[in-house]
Design brief:
Elements: H1 2-26, H2 32-41, H3 56-74, H4 78-90, H5 97-122, H6 128-176, H7 181-191, H8 195-208, H9 213-224, H10 227-242, H11 246-306
Length: about 300
């Protein structure tokens, strides 16, 4: 009886995983520019379900998944959803909050279905070991999207940090040469590649649309979450409010940024010997002992056989 129930649960889990994977494959995130244009135009007169020119994922699966994710988010604490939204913004907004929950559901269904299927195929009877295995894979499926999101945030922040010293040197040179801060940021956005250039382009667009520059810069620090960039933004805003020279402030910030880069490099250099201990002990030393002591061990063994 328990075997039949486990087989049924495995079949349901595998079917759910396949269904969620198909939904994720057909579903395509809405383009934010198209969504904004559509909101300006107003609601469409005809139903999207009857617009056969759109893909099936945009007409059926996308709204269905968004509705289910919104229902799930309604039961979650607002602090959790806001924190998740901030993490997604720091990662460059690869997904919306509802898209992240859809990915979590797909991951849980996939790992859970595989765990149930393997347990049903290999275990003759259900025991505590099989239950712990299934539960562990469910937990892995739930935590895997969170790990991916944290890695995306760290990777993006690391790319921004690596590009800051050279970008600030260029900004300082442009400002001291006579350009305004906006023109200098535009020149840096043209020369620098990566997430920092995208963020600078977003600031310039917001300022061009009439937003105050200090508000755009403050949001830049919140979106990236990089301490060095937040310190730069605060220094520039304070210089504008106090009426001090922007060029002098930028020169000081560029010097501090180069000093922090040198300190990070020295820190990594000091951490390198500690990190090399485990590869040496686990990989190199056993091989070295085998090469050095192997012939001696063979000779000693042969001498014992002769005696």
């Amino acid at each position: 009886m328990e075997q039949n129930l486990l087989s049924l649960a495995a079949a349901i889990g595998v079917a759910s995983a396949v269904l969620f994977l198909l939904m994720a494959a057909f579903y395509r995130q809405n383009d934010p520019i198209r969504s904004r244009i559509q909101s300006i135009r107003g609601p469409a007169t005809g139903g999207d379900l009857h617009d056969l020119t759109k893909p099936f994922g945009d007409r059926v699966l996308g709204p269905t998944l968004d509705a289910v994710a919104d229902r799930v988010m309604a039961f979650l604490p607002s602090s959790l959803t806001e924190g998740l939204r901030r993490r997604l913004v720091m990662a460059g907004e690869p997904l919306t909050v509802s898209g992240y929950f859809i990915m979590v559901a797909c991951s849980i269904a996939l790992f859970g279905g595989l765990a149930l299927a393997v347990t049903a195929a290999t275990a003759a009877e259900v025991g505590s070991r099989q239950i712990l295995t299934v539960f562990g894979l469910f937990v892995v499926g739930a935590l895997l999207p969170y790990v991916w999101l944290n890695n995306s945030v760290r990777s993006r922040q690391g790319s921004i940090v690596r590009s800051l010293p050279d970008a600030f040197d260029l900004v300082t040179t442009c400002v001291e040469a006579g350009l305004g801060l906006d023109a200098a940021l535009a020149r840096v956005a043209e020369k620098v590649e990566g997430p920092f250039a995208d963020e600078l382009g977003r600031i310039l667009r917001e300022v061009g649309l009439g937003r105050m520059r200090r508000d755009a810069l403050r949001d830049l620090g919140v979106r990236t979450g990089v301490p060095d960039l937040i310190a730069f933004v605060n220094a520039v805003i304070q210089a504008e409010q106090m009426g001090t020279s922007i060029g002098q402030v930028l020169r000081v910030q560029a010097d501090q940024m180069r000093m922090r880069r040198r300190q990070r490099a020295e820190k990594l250099a000091h951490e390198a010997p500690v990190r090399m201990v485990f590869p040496l002990v686990l990989c190199i030393f056993p091989t070295l002992f085998l090469v050095i002591l192997g012939p001696a061990g063979i000779t000693i063994y042969e001498n014992f056989l002769k005696q």
